């Protein structure tokens, strides 16, 4: 029997999941899990990339003890990268929630207005998009002598194989891919005076990289949402939410949609496995997780959800408000956006869940308007799919049939490409 290993790393944890085909279905077993998270260093938020690599290798060792692993691949969040000078890393590896791009966004847009960028790429505006991070690197001299920039999963795969290859689905999170050619946009690179050699050819999921300790290493859809959508057992083409630290809400389309309505609604076009993902980033379980850390770190999330359901608090806020991206205090950020102060800690959670459901409703209305199509079903996968209260609020708010699949969709999509 052929066994494959999916290494799925999110912003808060990583998982090693072994998969195999049985009765024409992918069966899985989680063999290793580890903590991940941003660190503060010299006033910046960074990733401990050396820790991630150590944990990746540790989990592979555990998987090999249990199974005859034939192949592996790695997926992570998008936009972030490791700068390289040959085989040497340029530290630190900045995290997307760091505020370093705030000072350069206007300068980038003075060179290429966002409206023009969107026409080129179809990529939604986020202050942490790779394009702004790289421009900040240029301004501070970090690109001098740089030979490569490798997205986080590309870097980890390189450290296993010695092979540097850039993968398509993750590249589409950079805000620098020409939606017509599906390669890096040469005009953007030239106008921003970025080193041309950094923007190498792109490879598609399934590409062979090399071997690690006798295991075949390949590219999956290395952007975790790309793998997650690939892993949804969907009937027809319907709406999806990949619900984790972020909620990624969207639908598969044949081609990117880059009209003015899509730009104003801040919809993105990202690479899928043979299709376009027309989707929107919504703040997601990040706001819930941060409230939990601050207000009730010793309580189980399942207990918090039950108490939030019992709360009578009804005010909502904009779940995508920029102040919620990386506040020192999520509670204080909520307080500043609400006119009626919550009386109990669980009021904050009820507000978060209701606000997320409302944001899903608004996003779906925009999506259906911009695509000219109506959808009847909404598939929800990922960690947030286990939240029955949020699922019920979402069904009530959207009027869609919510199909909850509390499965490791990202890992299954990763495995599907391998198997």
Name the features.
419 residues, alpha+beta, 2 domains, six-stranded mixed sheet, 15 helices, 22 strands, 25% strand, globular
Q: What is the name of the CATH topology of the largest domain?
A: Nucleotidyltransferase, domain 5
The radius of gyration is 21 Å
State the fourth-level CATH superfamily of the largest domain. ATPase, nucleotide binding domain
The level-1 CATH class of the largest domain:
Alpha Beta
With helices defined by DSSP (H or I, 4 residues minimum), what is the helix count?
15
Overall structural class, as computed from helix and strand content, comes to alpha+beta
Q: Main sheet, how many strands, which sense, barrel?
A: 6 strands, mixed
Mean pLDDT: 97
